[in-house]
Amino acid sequence: MREQDTNTARIRELNDLLRTTFFVGGIVVQTEGIQNLPEAEQSRIREKVETFNDFTEDNDPYQEHDFGSFTHAGNKIFWKIDYYDPTLQKGSEDPADPKQTKRVLTIMLAKEY
Q1: In what order do the strands lie in the sheet with 75-84?
Q2: Exposed / middle / buried, residue 103 (Cβ in 10 Å: 0-12, 13-18, 19+)
Q3: Per-residue DSSP letter, 23
């Protein structure tokens, strides 16, 4: 397996771990638009993010599982994972290395993007 393929597989694994656990390897934040929804709606949206598995070539061209979208209660929802250094001050130099990377999963209304 090529190094790029190995790195992509590792990034995907780490992204899926954060997305499905909401705490391993990073943090999860919600935008103001999501925060303003009723708590029950927020909970359902977080559950949809955790169980999201509709990855296609169109929405996941690099096969890193770092973005998804779905509709919930008439709202288009986006979630996105970004890679930062452990201090959250700059981008990560190697997203495949969890020692160098803190992931931030942001959940937002599409209109906030």
Answers
A1: 26-30, 102-109, 75-84, 67-72
A2: buried
A3: S
Average pLDDT of the residues in 4-33: 96
pTM of the entire structure? 0.94
The number of domains in the chain is: 1
Domain that holds residue 23: 3-112
Q: Is the dihedral of CA 32, 76, 54, 83 positive or negative?
A: negative
Label residue 5 by pLDDT band (50, 70, 90): confident
pLDDT band at 2 (very low <50, low <70, confident <90, very high): low
Integer-rounded Cα radius of gyration of the chain? 14
* Environment class of 85 (CB within 10 Å of its CB; exposed 0-12, middle 13-18, buried 19+): middle
Residue 70 β-bridge partners: 77
Question: Residue type for 27, please?
Answer: I
